[in-house]
Design a protein that fits this description.
This protein is of the alpha/beta class and about 220 residues long. It has five helices and ten strands.
Length: about 220
């Protein structure tokens, strides 16, 4: 598989982030492929955040259609809110236009350092329905694929993190992948074979092995 671009962009949640590791699988992969690494993963990150940062990277010409993009979807209930008050930069993204985007996931009101957002976070829990969230995800995931296809990004890949997303196991519903990207879904069931203490994030060995696995795939 020939990657002719100069960059690798990885968007994901804490699975793809520097969660108790010095180097991520994306960083390892970029070195194997001799690409510039653009890190767009974040702890507590949502799919909404992934779509937002990739959309911005495309519109601002940070990445080109020749570049490699890997999206590691997370659980569908996560989202983000704008706030004019910063609480802790590790859980939010500052915006050039002012304010920050605060990351939200279930029960975030119990631990978020942005105390001004706790009432909103607690109230938002009352407005979550999994069927609605699943439909919202499928709709925006489809629009995202159509946008990327329209812009000519053929090297867009979806990395499946077991237990995080890509399938609604309760209702046995699969994520819809457009024909243009039907061969661009990467399953790696050994992802958490080398995990840190919580069992849901890779350790240094896990990131290294996944980087090598992906490199072998893209270099074949």
């Amino acid at each position: 598989m020939k990657i002719t671009g100069k960059n690798l962009l990885v968007a994901g949640c804490s699975v793809s982030d520097y969660t108790e590791v010095e180097q991520t699988y994306g960083e390892h992969l970029a070195k194997h492929l001799n690409l510039n690494y653009i890190h767009r993963a974040a702890g507590c990150g949502s799919n909404w955040r992934m779509w937002r940062v990739i959309f911005d990277a495309v519109n601002n010409n940070i990445i080109t259609p020749e570049d490699l993009i890997i999206v590691q979807y997370t659980e569908i209930t996560r989202t983000e809110f704008w706030s004019d008050t910063s609480g802790n930069w590790t859980l939010e993204d500052p915006l050039d236009t002012g304010g920050v985007m605060i990351r939200w996931k279930m029960d975030a009101h119990e631990w978020t350092p942005n105390i001004n957002s706790r009432p909103l976070f607690r109230e938002y829990l009352k407005h979550i329905d999994l069927n609605v969230e699943w439909n919202k995800f499928l709709q925006h995931h489809t629009m995202f694929q159509c946008f990327m296809k329209e812009r000519g990004f053929k090297n867009l890949y979806f990395l499946v993190a077991p237990g995080y997303s890509f399938k609604d196991a309760k209702a046995n519903r699969n994520v819809i992948v457009e024909d243009f990207y039907k061969d661009n879904v990467i399953s790696y069931n050994r992802m958490f074979r080398h995990a840190n203490a919580d069992g849901f994030h890779m350790n240094e060995t896990g990131h290294d092995l996944l980087g090598k696995h992906l490199a072998q795939m893209f270099l074949t």
